[in-house]
Write a structure and sequence with these properties.
Strand content: under 5%
Strand order of the largest sheet: 1-2
Number of helices: 11
Order of helices and strands: HHEEHHHHHHHHH
Radius of gyration: 22 Å
Largest sheet: 2 strands, antiparallel
Shape: elongated
Number of strands: 2
Helix content: 55-70%
Length: 197
């Protein structure tokens, strides 16, 4: 047993009531522990909050980003890319390094920073060039100042209110953001895997 595990176990408070102990796992119907149920609990803890919003009265509703993604007029591969990115499963180098894979965390495109979702999609030299050519560089700059996570910035851009987009004079911005983000990933993938087609 690891020392840290022993410390955690010893820090569990003992009940002050005279109750007999019993074994129970409330995350399965039969009350028995299974590895599958533990993974399910952990997944819900990490990602379930992104899938649902609470209205503060005990009821939860679907996060509007998922409806927005599936309504986009773009190829299914782009929608799946967005879904994966917003769930934090895009295999950027920082993510792979955090999972103890032996890769350099530096961006393979610019070698200027750690390649996480934010760098890949918004801060890399190549990404900035793409957003500037599309005329979205100022919106993205403001979004990057507000939040640190690339997933949150992408979600913010995809959920921009229609009236804000009309005022700025843009049409099909969500599709443009979605396809541009996918394009940046595709270009990076070609570079890393030496796919020159």
């Amino acid at each position: 047993m690891w020392t840290i595990d022993a410390e955690w176990i010893l820090s569990i408070p003992i009940s002050q009531h005279n109750m007999t102990d019993f074994i129970a796992w409330s995350y399965t119907k039969n009350g028995l522990f299974s590895v599958r149920s533990a993974y399910s609990v952990e997944w819900n803890y990490q990602y379930g909050s992104k899938l649902k919003y609470s209205n503060g009265m005990g009821r939860s509703t679907r996060n509007p980003i998922w409806c927005q993604i599936w309504k986009l007029s773009c190829p299914a591969k782009v929608k799946i890319f967005l879904w994966r990115t917003l769930h934090g499963t895009l295999p950027c180098r920082a993510t792979l390094t955090n999972r103890h894979m032996k890769v350099s965390p530096l961006c393979p495109t610019c070698s200027q920073g750690v390649e996480d979702t934010k760098h890949l999609l918004f801060l890399c030299r190549k990404a900035k060039e793409v957003w500037k050519r599309l005329g979205l560089d100022m919106i993205i700059e403001r979004a990057c100042e507000i939040d640190r996570a690339g997933e949150a910035i992408l979600e913010y851009l995809l959920l921009l209110p229609d009236q804000d987009l009309r005022i700025m004079g843009y049409e099909n911005v969500r599709e443009m953001v979605a396809i541009s983000a996918w394009y940046l990933w595709w270009e990076r993938r070609k570079l890393v895997h030496k796919e020159f087609t």
